[in-house]
Amino acid sequence: MARGPARNLLYLYSSRNNFTKIRAFLLPNRFLHSDFSNPSKSHLFNTPDPKFSKFTPPHFTQSLNYRFLEFHRHPFSSIVENESPKLDSDDVDSISDVGLGEDGPRKENLEPEKILNFAQIASRDPVEIYRELRDAARNEKQSRTDWNVLVEIFRSFAKSGWATNQALAVYIGASYFPTAAHEFRDFFFEKCKTDIVKYLVSLGPGIEAEKFLFPIFVEFCLEEFPDEIKRFRSVVESADLTKPHTWFPFARAMKRKIVYHCGPTNSGKTYNALQRCMEAKKGIYCSPLRLLAMEVFDKVNALGVYCSLLTGQEKKFVPFSNHVACTVEMVSVDELYDVAVIDEIQMMADPSRGYAWTRALLGLKADEIHLCGDPSVLDIVRRICSETGDELVEQHYDRFKPLVVEAKTLLGDLKNVKSGDCIVAFSRREIFEVKLAIEKYTKHRCCVIYGALPPETRRQQANLFNDDNNDYDILVASDAVGMGLNLHIRRVVFYSLSKYNGDKTVPVPASQVKQIAGRAGRRGSPYPEGLTTTLHLEDLDYLIECLKKPFDEVKKVGLFPFFEQVELFAGQFSDVTFAQLLEKFAQNCRLDGSYFLCHHNHIKKIANMLEKVQGLSLEDRFNFCFAPVNIRDPKAMYHLLRFASSYAHKLPVNIAMGMPKCTARNDSELLDLETKHQVLSMYLWLSNQFEEEKFPYVKKVEAMAVDIAELLGDSLTKANWKPESRNPGKPKLQENEIGHERPRSLIKLYEQRRKEGSSAGQNLEKVTA
Ligand SMILES: Nc1ncnc2c1ncn2[C@@H]1O[C@H](COP(=O)(O)OP(=O)(O)OP(=O)(O)O)[C@@H](O)[C@H]1O
Ligand SMILES: [Mg+2]
């Protein structure tokens, strides 16, 4: 296809290819982005080609090389990649010459000469445009209408998310961008030239104009703000979380084999991975929960393989053991293992704790690593393995027995519960309401499991439920039941399918519904075939929808900086609090496209509370902030503050907490026991993070924790009172007179209101207020 200058113009306004895309290879920066994101296609642009000669003046290549270096080194490659035009040879060949396209800027009625002029402006080197403006004596006069459009264009530029992101690439920070954009506007207004203004006006306010202005803006910034750029650059470089696989050179030096056991719940993933681990000379099992680490510790030892236990709270060293069961946060990336198991690998995407799984996968020094989990992170694990150079073997599993949905439901009446049922509710309050109602209106007795209970108590309740020789044949549980415990559940009944997320009540995500429902029917239990249903008929459709839904593919997994990285970053600032430092880190850190920075509001809340404690080093603060504490429980927070103060004053940290004498007689006594156990658990955790001599009461605290866990278990088996709320501000569900039936399905209301077109969150808040 012959391409003369006239045809080149038509390329610009092709109807099949949008304007941006085509303009992309006419402008140096766009050109570069293509080059950068897809080196294999770079020949399209780098080879001197007569067909583009009109748009590639000789100095262009020079300026391109310079930019290429800049962008190549810049940290936000993912941003640039996302923005890069996907231009390939087909794009060029398929450009039709039928006329103007829909996507172009207001060009429909432009005369050919104007198009030609604009094409020339669009294709000019921004460096040259910038210099021309800079060297101009003053602005050329513009019409009022054009001026007004120009003002709008610059207003939109200053607020542009796209430009703000792109500016990071040249180390103009997001907080500095508005100032820089403002100065740029003043500069432009002072020097503007009619042909450029006309071209901008033809584009109008929006992304097209922003993309045209941006490279000129960059030239302006490089010349005007070298100090700011330098400062921001060193801040950004010290918050570099890109290429996390390079943080573990020893693991990278190894030839590791990764085996991904991929499948739904109850399909034998953990069983098979553990078998392999037990056969190895030296193995480690990384658990998502303390409870599960304890289960594996017991199981492996019972099978005759010596195994130690390591969690934040306890270190049980078994003599001669070469195996260890630990919580994933505690895994050592220094020790060498033959086989490692990382359970529930999909937790890599957990907004708060994901970093611990990512670290284990990237950093473990093991010849063989077995990952167990659902398929949601399979793709990202493939990507990570191609970066790390590890071999990946995939083993896919199906459920031993399919999960059956009971369409009848409980018809809204808890009297229809049957032996072996697990009723799942999503708040402590609902759990106790359900227990109370079942025990009042039926002959069944209930065990309870929820997140605030110590693992020992959850286990005791699980054993009580699994044991056939007692009346405790119903389990009432929160989502804490979704992972870890070996439970003999015949049927999972969802009391509701909505959950308070700390802000508002929302439907429970499908992946969680699947995980919980999948607990019904376990191989080796008296009920190998699982059933699931809902209390209310109107929730059934949502349950079925969730179970049918394929697993969402995870696009990003969590990361969090090590202390050393935070320390390096802290060196850039003086006079900022630790919470502010974390905030700044989050604003400035650089991440590759497959990673996100884990939520750290919890850490910031503790950091703020500890701000008034003098004498803690940065490292002490960092460690205290990870303490396992319920930030919504003021008593627990008070004890943490007290521990940190004693530690800072170099005093022995004491527990100073009375021991309850008897089981709880009401809900507030039960809440008190829960808090007391959490405080003891926190003490033990801290004693493992800091020098033990600073926490001299570990033995006493361990004994107290065992006693309280027992008291909690005994209290729960007797509990027959109405629940209280630890957090009075939290929305409560409506209660009906007898307190065991919800009046209406929240999910149904949610769906209905969503159909009506208003926002789900607002609606549910109305329902739950
Ligand atoms: N080959 C096997 N022989 C005997 N028991 C098995 C076998 N495979 C699995 N089991 C038992 O089946 C149950 C479910 O297996 P496992 O815990 O490995 O499933 P999973 O896929 O990891 O489920 P989850 O997602 O719930 O963790 C366990 O009690 C396990 O001991
Ligand atoms: Mg498992």
Automatic annotation (TrEMBL):
Protein's UniProt keywords contain NAD: no
EC number, UniProt record: 3.6.4.13
Primary location class: mitochondrion
Residues of the Helicase C-terminal domain: 409-562
Catalysis: reaction(s): ATP + H2O = ADP + phosphate + H(+)
PROSITE patterns on file: HELICASE_ATP_BIND_1, HELICASE_CTER
One of the record's GO cellular component terms: nucleus
Cofactor(s) required, per the database record: Mn(2+); Mg(2+)
Record protein name field: ATP-dependent RNA helicase SUV3L, mitochondrial
